[in-house]
Amino acid sequence: MMAYRPNIDDESVLRRWMGIEAGRINDALVAERKTLARLLDEKVPSSTTKGGKEYAFDREVIRTLGDRLPPEMHDRLWLPIVFSFSPEVRDSFYLRDGTALLALKTLGELGAMREFHEGRLWVSNAIVYAMMSKYPTVIQIGIG
Predict the structure, then answer these.
(1) Which of 3, 76, 86, 104 is placed for a possible disulfide with 109 were both Cys, Cβ 3.0 to 4.6 Å?
(2) pLDDT digit string (tens) for 66-109?
(3) Hey, where are the domains in the chain?
């Protein structure tokens, strides 16, 4: 007797598959975020991903942030900065971290008029990718 096999287009199958893929993507996210101050003190700035692998920060980028951001922000900025993807909004990622927003404004990456709406700041994918290119290893994208 043949067991029941759901159709590939069955919504429950698609949701389960999307959940598995989201888990794989989020496994690459840093599990223990660290402050900029702590990373500046580390000889080899690194952390561990949710999947248990080592995550090395780009030392020069960490130094650049240390030089360009005010010292009082070093203990408040947690890295990496994490933007999240939502399947409902395909052309933008969102940020929930107020200190990260202040840091990105200070660096000139986001305009002074940007603000949170309902706890989120939406930023176009193109801008987030450009920041990731400019500051490798200190910005990540997860699935919210």
Answers:
(1) 104
(2) 999 999 999 999 999 999 998 889 899 999 999 999 999 999 99
(3) 11-143
